Amino acid sequence: MRRTAIFSIFLFIGLGVLFIQACREQDNQKKILPVPKAKPADLGSVSALPLSYASPADNPITEEKVELGRLLFYDPILSGNKDVSCASCHHPEFGYAESLELPIGVNGRGFGSERHFVQPNDIPFSKRNAPALVNTAFNGIDVNGNYMPEEAPMFWDSRVNSLEVQALQPIKQLEEMRGRHIGEHDILQVVVKRLKAIPEYKRLFKVAFNEEEEAITETNLGKALASFQRSLVANNSRFDEFMRGNPAALTQSEKEGMQLFMESGCARCHNGPMLSDFKPHVLGVADNEKLGIIDSGVNNSFAFRTPTLRNLRFSAPYMHSGKLKTLEQVLTFYEDLHGKALPNANIKKEQLDTLAIQTRVAFKNIPRIVEFLNTLNDDKYDRKIPDAVPSGLSVGGNIK
What we know:
Blueprint: H1 2-32, H2 63-74, E1 108-109, E2 116-117, E3 153-154, E4 160-161, H3 163-166, H4 169-172, H5 174-178, H6 187-196, H7 199-209, H8 218-230, H9 238-243, H10 252-263, E5 280-282, E6 303-305, H11 327-336, H12 354-358, H13 366-373
Antiparallel strand pairs: 1-2, 3-4, 5-6
């Protein structure tokens, strides 16, 4: 009886030890189980531009259309007062953009920083900073390289689609090209009538569009201007070479800048081959005091379309209001979104775009990121300026 009791006690103790050991092993197994990793945040992606561009089915690219479009682009015959051309605010020296915060169109004289209104003047500044026309052939391209030129978003507020439609809008705009003496609904008819009165334009339109009669139309005017603008491509920057497989195209410092650009969240909006998602975002950038009114952007939301980051070297100043003069100022603006008051008093913090808030640019990283942004420059775009235009007017308008 006593032996049985002693045996039971040892059995109980043994089972207890085994139980404790089993628990410890189970705990140890729990400890060495791999901890599930948090899903990495989507920081976006960037890529090289295509080697060629697409044209709309109803406006295939031809050399004749491009050269006709070039002449029209530099000819002030398209403006109400015959003093402004498309090139007045989109000149090749500035990457087919403008060096002023806000462009001076009608009643302007001079070039670049010297351009000014002729006095007396009752014409306002153009509403927004002039977007660069280089690479607009790729507007709307997504991260997979897909795009439709017929649906390409244009202007800071994406209010029209395609270069064919965009090309005619400045002609109709009072402060850009139309002026006060011709109505918005009449200006294109007036311009077409002027072109029909010039024999050289009659010949050039007929050749470009293979039409025997009435080749000079509003539609063909838009197509010729669009063909020239679409041909303004700069798609072989050092960044493009790097993304196509040449690691030596960028320096180590530039590669680090690219990494910091990605890690900061910049590519969430500045993504794809054009480094733009072509979507509107609210950032709180200051209005330009020269405008004299509040610019409320897309559908009065204070949002503006993401601009491309390509060829920034040529197209300063930046943002829709032209208020930021350098890339360092642009990046400092994003750093200041966290903590400082917004430059635009009309916008509250809670209105800011979520992706803008998620962007975190550290001040110490700004020089490296700027180095990377400069790898996106490609100065080998078409800069040819015609010696004369068929109207006989001053090439480029009153820019001399």
